[in-house]
Design brief:
- The protein is an alpha+beta fold and 140 residues long.
- The chain has a single domain, classed as Aminopeptidase (3-Layer(aba) Sandwich).
- The chain is built from three helices and seven strands; from the N terminus they run H-E-E-E-H-E-H-E-E-E.
Length: 140
């Protein structure tokens, strides 16, 4: 569901820190992204505990997904899929022509199952291979 409070936003940052800073060492700072202020943030909960997150940023008819993460103990449980389905639903509601994201190599199949297609060559960020992927918006 969409983040509704500063306390929930702090949970988003905790998950980002755990996954992107400590586990993957992708970045040293997952808390100071200028797009955070104008984006819609999501948390997935299980048993009262926040375990997954993702962010949607809208730029006109373009929707951008970033910071999708699930805590290690909840991977494979469907929470990542739930976060992405909520993001896709909102992008469709906002009439986005397409959704773009930078997928880590290990997550490409996950995003393909959600309708995303690779549209660019591999690039490396923080020592991890990524590909740009796009999903066309829902037909109008």
């Amino acid at each position: 569901r969409e983040v509704e409070s500063l306390a929930e936003m702090e949970e988003v940052f905790r998950i980002r820190d755990e996954v992107f800073v400590h586990e993957q060492r992708l970045t040293r700072d997952a808390r100071h992204d200028p797009d955070d202020r104008t984006s819609i943030h999501y948390l997935a909960w299980r048993d009262g505990r926040p375990l997954g997150t993702g962010r949607l940023t809208l730029h006109g008819r373009e929707a951008q997904v970033a910071w999708v993460a699930v805590r290690p103990e909840a991977r494979g449980s469907g929470l990542g899929n739930a976060v992405m389905e909520a993001i896709i639903d909102r992008a469709d509601l906002e009439r986005a022509a397409y959704i773009v994201l930078n997928a880590q190599d290990h997550a490409i199949t996950f995003y393909e199952r959600l309708g995303f297609e690779i549209v660019g060559p591999e690039f490396t960020m923080g020592g991890i291979g990524h590909r740009v992927m796009i999903r066309r918006g829902a037909p109008r």
